[in-house]
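re: ur question from yesterday

yeah so i grabbed the chain u mentioned. its 206 aa long if i counted rite. heres the sequnce exactly as i have it in my notes:
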Amino acid sequence: MMHDKQQAALTLWKRALAHIEIEDPEALRWARSVGPHTWKEMSSEEFLRSYCFVVYASGMKYQTIDGIFADLSKSFKYFNIVKLSKMNSLKEPLRVFNLERKARNFLDGAQLIAKEGFGDFKERVSKQGMDALERLPGIGPITKKHLAKNIGLADVAKNDRWLVKASKITGWLCPEDMVDFLSEATREKRHVIDVAIWNLAKDGNL
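ran it thru and got these structure tokens back, copy pasting raw so excuse formatting
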């Protein structure tokens, strides 16, 4: 017998899926395409792009960062690890988005990876799992999940404010438990469920 909170979660999921299928089908295709092969085949530029986006998106409106990310990418040498390893000035990134803490965190992290060597970094993270991402500046307990799911390192949901709100609305004490139930019930990846619910919330429909 299905409990009320399970039915409520499934109802929310159906709303979220219908919304993203109409409003942002490309995001849904992307979320469904991400998996272990994504991480295995990932280049340094692709990883640094994801790392940069997560650092800048933390605590900010998605639309704000999405709107400046092309210029931000250019200011960070299009995430070329060799060029970033030699980059000394934050002048260009700060011209795009004037928040030094985020720019410094990302550049310091990129240079740590360059110093270690991307191949060695990737091998270490593969062995240690997503907790290893917290050693990167600007990455914490929630953002490590955001980054890990985006790069295919782990199939997790990030327990941000929207997922917490969704779990409260549907009667779940723990957002991760709600996502685990939905993943098992729908056979969708946790990452997909996270993206769909986030998309619904982002557009003010949660």
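noticed a couple things. The mean pLDDT is 95. also The two ends are 26 Å apart (CA to CA).
anyway ttyl
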